[in-house]
Amino acid sequence: MALTIEVDDIRKYYKDVHAVDGVSFAVEEGEFFGILGPNGAGKTTTLEIIEGLRAADSGSVRVFGESPWPRNPKLLPRIGVQLQATAFFDRQTTREQIRTFASLYGVGPKRADEMLEIVGLAEKAEVRTEKLSGGQMQRLSIACALVHGPDLVFLDEPTAALDPQARRNLWDLLREINAQGRTVVLTTHYMDEAEILCDRVAVMDHGRILELGPPATLIRDLDSPTRITIESGLLTEAVAGQLAAVDRATDDGVLLTLETREPAAVLVALAERDALRGLQAQGATLEDVFLNLTGREYRA
């Protein structure tokens, strides 16, 4: 596959802060690529360097074989960018907003109106943007990023602060964007989002990439135990901890959780004791990979 993005050892320092500290990766044409990390990991700065919004202190970036910095007019028609927060013009309707963005690229109003249909905002065309919901605003910002038909789309936390229904609806839109052959680069705090949408992910922290690969591969390589839960009270924590193949048992008063690397043996033992009520079994997830790499401490 042809490479859409090539990043080689880029660095960006702000006095003593190493915002990006030797990052290298490549993104293939048509790939859905995710960049994950806690607050301050360097995700947004990395994106801004690739987008040509910020200069790296060292290293190199190529997008479609071209350097994005200094601002490269050849790349602008081929790139669409949805930022964490999009500032729309005051007192304009949804239709007026997207037509304004389209005109900046020399795109006619017909295409702008088509984009409203694509993102499901045709019924809100005459509504002023300040009256749109959070999910509708995010859809409009993505429509503005796509209105000129870019080959490469950058999405910086597109589902932040959305309710679960709005997030799921937006996922469907992002899948459609990628299915059209566009390369998508996504940053997100939501591990389930990255696991479902991305072909590969890079986990960043302290300006560095800690792991990179398909979500399923990273999860498999973690070698995390399976967690089996049943209703609390069916077995005591002490009895559960002595079952064959159980590595650890914990009871929080609602659920009894058993950790094991041999789930079949544990399930048989629970069935023999008629202790299957509320049974759920879960293997490792991308969130487990993320926490294993970046730690569990809270970061503002």
UniProtKB/TrEMBL annotation:
Q: Which residues form a coiled coil?
A: none
Cross-referenced CDD domains, in alphabetical order?
A: ABC_DR_subfamily_A
Provide the alphabetized UniProt keywords: Antibiotic resistance, ATP-binding, Cell membrane, Membrane, Nucleotide-binding, Translocase, Transport
Recorded hits in SUPFAM superfamilies, A to Z, give: P-loop containing nucleoside triphosphate hydrolases
**SMART domains in the record, alphabetically?**
AAA
> What InterPro entries does the annotation carry?
AAA+_ATPase, ABC_transporter-like_ATP-bd, ABC_transporter-like_CS, ABC_transporter_ATP-binding, P-loop_NTPase
Q: Which residues form the ABC transporter domain?
A: 5-231
Name the membrane topology term. Peripheral membrane protein
Example of a GO MF term: ATP binding
Q: Name one GO cellular component term.
A: plasma membrane
Pfam families, per database record: ABC_tran (PF00005)
- Any one Gene Ontology BP term: response to antibiotic
Q: Which domain of life is it from?
A: Bacteria
Q: Where in the cell is it found?
A: Cell membrane
Q: Does the keyword Nucleotide-binding apply?
A: yes
Q: Does the keyword Cell membrane belong to this entry?
A: yes
User: What protein family is recorded?
Assistant: Belongs to the ABC transporter superfamily.
Q: What is this protein called?
A: ABC-2 type transport system ATP-binding protein
